[in-house]
Design brief:
It is built from five helices and six strands, in the order βαββαβαβαβα. It is α/β, with parallel strands linked by helices and about 180 residues long. Strands 2-3-1-4-5-6 form a six-stranded mixed beta sheet, with helices on both faces. The structure holds guanosine-5'-triphosphate and magnesium ion (MG).
Length: about 180
Amino acid sequence: MCPADGKAEYAFIGRSNVGKSSLINALTQRKNLALTSSTPGKTMCINHFLVNEQWYLVDLPGYGYAQRSKKDIEKFQTMISDYVLKREQLVCLFVLIDIRHDPQKVDLAFLNFLGSHGVPFAIVFTKADKLPVTKTEAAANKYMKTLQEEWEELPPYFITSSANKLGREELLAYIEDINKNL
Ligand code: GTP
Ligand code: MG
């Protein structure tokens, strides 16, 4: 069940295991607020976390997790698209992408789906600690270049790591900035 208090929501989405729950914990500086797991498919429902009594971080189930049954995949897809398309409180969706991976079809399809429905979103590259520092910016740029082949306008992006808190301040500042103008 989603809260009905009308507060702004910032949601995190991406493939299973990309680090959504870990990022929420890093942002809130809580170790086990959102349950994380090395087994994909841990987050099974929509979880809301109230921050500063003002706005919500929303943990969504991962998409593109092949080990689920067909019925479950459909259930999660409906849950995700209902939330993304219908939730009025959703202010910005953060789409998480593992910085080590080349663009994957399932992510590109999801990003195109967001673009075609006019959903406001930003890209968050995760697990930057797994690449040498000198390679992260280039990896992000390469990814954004792929998007540029199809899109006229690029979304903002952030390079983050929940392990060493890289990008945490930037992401929080971005959210606070939007909050100020609501
Ligand atoms: P689902 O809920 O299953 O969709 O996964 P999720 O996207 O919420 O991923 P979760 O946060 O549970 O993290 C998955 C795995 O990646 C865990 O083993 C985390 O410890 C690891 N992980 C997440 N973020 C980072 C990071 O920034 N750096 C490193 N090195 N590992 C990370
Ligand atoms: Mg999760």
